[in-house]
Amino acid sequence: MRLSGIEGAHRRRRGKYGKRSTSTATAPDLVERRFTAEAPNKLWVADITYLWTWEGFLYLAVVTDACSRKVVGWAMADHLRTELVLDAVGMAILTRKPAPGLIHHADRGSQYTAYEFGRTLRTSGVLASMGRVGSAFDNAMAETFFATLKTELVYRRSWPTRHELEMEVFSYLEGFYNSRRRHSRLGNLSPTDYEQQLVTQKEASA
User: Fold this and answer.
1) Cβ of 5: how many Cβ atoms within 10 Å?
2) Is residue 53 part of a domain?
3) Residue 143 is part of a domain; what is its CATH number?
4) CA 28 to each of CA 105, 132, 201: distance values in angstroms, whole numbers, following the listed order
5) Per its UniProt record, what Gene3D superfamilies does this chain match (predicted)?
6) Which of 1, 62, 90, 133 is deepest in the core (most CB within 10 A)?
7) Among residues 157, 155, 180, which one has the least CA distance to residue 69?
């Protein structure tokens, strides 16, 4: 990068370290900050973030696979109702079709502790896991993804409308992050290429 005159986008430092929740319908922490998995669809990490536009906040919920860092489910809306996270995890379940026993890890926000969300996980054979109240480190993998998204896209300019930002986030997720963005933790492969490499290795060893 130095020889080519390329400079990385710099991350803005913010004072957000935790979230509060008044809900009591929680699940145990099955992850304990071990955000690794030997194969896809063993551990998903989920969270919600706020993206600012001139019209107000656009809320983004994501579900990320801990093995490949791939965003396997996402949803955006102008509200924080439970439907937001239901749409995100519903997309992940529909497209990935995980086997029973997958762990879904999130914080203790009211959306994730809602009865409807818990029922959706149970019906799909997914185990709920939640970090402690007020500890962003218990959901560090999701926080890291959001920091990357904001550094590489959101903070680069201002956004007059929610629709405009929504279209750009969609393009970032599906057209760049999953398919083309390289990760040092993945041997400088994109999430999609890394998962394909795992499939190839599994077939070769069969």
Assistant:
1) 6
2) yes
3) 3.30.420.10
4) 10, 9, 34
5) Ribonuclease H-like superfamily/Ribonuclease H (3.30.420.10)
6) 62
7) 180
- Judge whether 153 lies within some domain: yes
Report whether pLDDT(12) > 80.
no
Whole-number mean pLDDT of the chain?
Answer: 88
Residue 118 domain boundaries? 43-205
Q: State how many domains the chain has.
A: 1
Phi/psi of residue 85, nearest 5 degrees: -75, -30
Express each pLDDT in 131-182 by its tens digit.
876 555 667 889 999 999 999 999 999 999 999 999 999 999 999 999 999 9
- What 3-state DSSP class applies to 103? strand
CA distance 121 to 102: 10
The dihedral built from the CA positions of residue 99, 101, 107 and 108, taken in this order, carries a sign that is positive
Domain for residue 137, yes or no?
yes
Give the residue ranges of DSSP H helices in 101-190. 110-113, 115-123, 140-152, 162-172
Residue 134 burial (CB count, 10 A)? 13
Task: Examine residue 183 and state whether it is found in any structural domain, yes or no.
Answer: yes
Model confidence at 129: pLDDT above 50: yes
Where residue 25 falls among pLDDT bands split at 50, 70, 90?
low
